[in-house]
Design brief:
This protein is an alpha+beta fold and about 120 residues long. It is about 25% helix and about 45% strand. The termini are far apart.
Length: about 120
């Protein structure tokens, strides 16, 4: 079974709220659920809700793959293992889609350039 989870984390007055929407493989909404936490920090609340929701999904649905969208954590692909799920970050909220390209922020030393030419 494949599932999609949409998790929205936001601040409302003096509380941090989490809305979780569970969608099955055909696109039908299975359930919606609100969690309420003490205010801030959003990242901590998002991680706690993420852990709780993945445990619930494992226990209730035993889904093979889960596409997990979160406005704070980003988008993850979860794949079922013997115990729990393997996580792969597909898109970060801060940096966008994951890329395998490497960036060098400093110029290589001249010594290293000579070695690479030889």
């Amino acid at each position: 079974m494949n599932m999609t989870v949409y998790q929205q984390v936001y601040v409302s007055a003096d509380k941090t709220k989490v809305l979780v929407i569970l969608v099955d493989g055909e696109g039908s909404v299975i359930d919606r659920h609100f969690f309420t936490y003490d205010a801030y920090p959003l990242a901590k609340v998002a991680r706690e809700a993420f852990e709780h929701v993945t445990k619930v999904l494992r226990r209730c649905f035993d889904a093979d793959t889960i596409d997990y969208h979160c406005n704070v954590l980003g988008r993850y692909q979860l794949t079922k293992q013997e115990r729990g799920y393997a996580r792969q970050l597909l898109e970060s909220r801060l940096t966008g889609k994951k890329s395998d390209k490497k960036v060098s922020w400093v110029e290589p030393a001249e010594e290293n350039l000579e070695e690479s030419v030889e």
